[in-house]
Amino acid sequence: MFETVAKTTERGFSRPVLVILVITILLAHIAIQGINISRPFYATSDDDNTAYGLGAYNLARFGFLDLKFGIATRYYDSVQDIKPGSFYTNHPQWFIMPAALSYKVFGISETATRLPSVIFSLLSIIAFYFTIAIVYKDKTIALFSTAAYALFPGFLFYGSSLSEKAFIIFFSNFAILSFFLLQTRKEKYMKAIFITMVFLLGIMGWHAYFAAVGLWLYTLLRKDVLYRKFLLISIPLVSILTFSLNLLHFYILNGAAFLSVFDQFLVRSSRFPLDVWGQQYGSWLISSFTWPAVLVAAGFLVYEIYMSILKRKFSLGLVFFTQPFLVILMFQQWTMHAFGSIYWVQFIALALGFTLSKLINLQPRQLQLVGSILAILLIGLCIRFGYDSFNLYNYKADILKPNDIELLKAVSAQTPKSTNVALGNTTIGFNYRSVLEWYLMRKIKYGYVDDRVTVFLAFSPELGPQYEKLIKEAEKIGYERMGQGSYLWLYQRFPHAPAANQE
Question: Domain boundary residue among 379, 396, 413?
């Protein structure tokens, strides 16, 4: 049932060579991740690391049972401070558990925050390789696709970030792999493994359900799928079960306030003019996967649709396509974020791997030199623009600068934990409060100062006139500038300073 959609003259690999090549890909991924695994949290979307990191830290400190396996994304002095309504229930909670265990074992640090996501992403690469190898029976396609998957700049960045996305991708890959293993192995335990993967997928995040939809459509639209009736019934049933369990968990955590998740759905699914959305989404899509790979993927999509219509068979490529496509349809506002295109990683990696394999195996053989030159050119372009995107994600598209992090570390080291700290208002759309609380390890006030606030962190006046006005107001009531970074300026008020309400 897994015949490839086009004939190839695959270049054979002995098993030892194949193992060496796969290990080389994995080691390259690990080496690149190692560059930034301990990098401070100043890059784009690193506020996810600090917000969910605080959630993991609270679980590690106060206990999984005491917090009912919930995510509380603020710093709390004691478990009694975490009341119903304090939990962050925009997403299912379970993806945070590996990070909480990491904190328990290694303590709280940037490395311990990223480590679980890095491990799960590494394992997802292996699952992706075996899926391609099983379905296409072509080692060249599998190797090229896996190399692209492992080295795409967007996956390198978000695959090491503490958020639901890395875990959704991991479990979607293993659910898809177990699906195709179920088609090739008759052991009864394969059904149990597949159902377990779909269940775990469903408690990782809302977007996970779209990966299950892809498998369900594959089953529905192909008559050659084994255990077809079982799959058509079990996939939606397990998905409904996990959806219900997620909502029940929210209710246990927040009581009736859990209904706010539906308000968040309305926000995340809000629509934008197509040109506005397309420009923003396209920019991050190209940054995540490079424009040559995206261009190849567009052509591959046309090819996959044509071949599926011709053969009347839903393909693996369309399974990978289903999830990101449905995310766009259902959560357009969410896809405007820098991470909004991350679920394309499997589809674009397969597209690039398939195309490269066909180029180096062109028929007749006289064309193979031309194909190989084109393949080398395509790889070179992807590496060239991928390097730029890697630097963009890690060093250029920042929410703070390294000197801001050093400023926060100095405040943490030089002031008692009892010191009241406030952060000035900002219209920049990042969760700066979580960044400050993660580095300072104390609860901070946000958007105002009062008589109890000793340390005040304001945003640089260079970022806008509203910040300059706020700084002047702070100086008027007795705050003195003690240091500055690129984004943050540090002010402190001493006991002799006038009252906060003084004109």
Answer: 396
Q: Compute the half-sphere exposure of residue 348: CA atoms within 13 Å on the CB side of its CA.
A: 28
Cα separation, 1 vs 219, in Å, equals: 12
* 451 and 359 belong to one structural domain: no
Residue 119 falls inside a structural domain? yes
Range of the domain at 47: 15-396
Query: Are the beta carbons of 26 and 34 closer than 8 angstroms?
Result: no
Beta carbons of 293 and 147 less than 8 angstroms apart = no
Residue 309 phi, psi (nearest 5)? -70, -45
Asked if 334 and 471 sit in the same domain, the reply is no
Contacts of 238 (CB under 8 A, 6+ apart): 195, 198, 199, 202, 212
Residues 284 and 411 in one domain: no
Taking alpha carbons only, the member of 357, 287, 342, 315 closest to residue 121 is: 342
Q: Looking at the 3D structure of the chain, how many domains does it have?
A: 2
Read off the tokens for 164: 């639901």
Beta-strand relationship, 480-484 and 488-492: antiparallel
| Same domain, residue pair 346 and 438 | no
Which pair of tokens denotes residue 437? Answer: 């609380």
Quick: pLDDT tens for 318-374. Answer: 999 999 999 999 999 999 999 999 999 999 999 999 999 999 998 888 888 999 999
pTM of the model: 0.92
| Residue 260 confidence class, pLDDT cut points 50, 70, 90 | confident
The answer on 61 and 115 residing in a single domain is yes
